[in-house]
Amino acid sequence: MTRTLGIGLAGLGRMGRIHATNLTSRCGAARLAAVYDANADVARALAEELEVPWAASYAELLERADAVAIATPTGTHAELTAAAAEAGRHVFCEKPISLDRPTTVETIEAVQRAGVVFQVGFHRRFDPDWVAAAARIHAGELGEVTLFRTSLRDMTPPPPEFLAGSGGFFVDVTVHDLDVARWLVGEVVEVTAHGTASDPAFAAIGDIDTAVVVLRFENGALGVIDNSRSARYGYECSSEVMGSAAIARIDAPRRHGYEWRTPGLASHELPRDFEERYPWAYAEELDAFARCVRDGAPPRVSGVDALAAFDLAQAADRSWRTGRPVALTPQRTETGVRYETTEKDEVRV
Is residue 293 part of a domain? Predict the structure, then answer.
């Protein structure tokens, strides 16, 4: 048997627990080597529940594992990634790498110098439905892409304490759709965003809970993204890509595989959140990371891909705040595509 990759998990909040469950029950190429959390009692309790070791410090976690998965608060991602790379450990990191662009770039350069595998957590690239659609689009079966449309709507908003460190609506929510847009269609040359806060709590902190983003792609296609933090009816993540020969549509699946029918009405349950919608995608992204380490293949979502999505999210935020479209130029480098804009406050690399 091929040896599984022992992954040390840092951060045991909601995403960390999802990863812990997958590493102990759903992954085939990866296993949970140890857990760590800033709250030692949390780490100890989960370790006992899952029957795995726990680490009293991040340094100890690095010693116990071949690689690390970082699911800690966003403000710690860059520091922990750089420390793991310096120790020669491969890194899976939840998005975003940092809320600060220069720090993001420095972190990417640090892992490149260390020569370790670095994958960022854009889970839709590992969901079977999205992967199948992408394969046929990239094979040319769709023809010339003309329109991209996607919706990402949460059932209920996150707590206020999360919003304070989330980086804002576009970096936290829309960034997933922007990554998918690049993946399925191509590079973006213009972003226009409109947003509103239907809940006064969002307006009070200078944020929004609903947005529409319009994209212009380098290949001439158009894109429309609609997002909501509080759709109330359930969790929805659906998309369609229209081409000259066909259209690909990815709908939000039902929570269960049955329908309840009464006179004049057919009903089925909807997913409540991303955890119910993407259970296998979260497992597969860790398995794919482990296979990259084992086989020496590049990760499906690199740090440069995460930087590109972050730049597009920042462009959407600027467009919303200024009321103007933001033009971008995709610059192709040896390590991937990086975006430049004519905005005076843009930091370029």
Answer: no
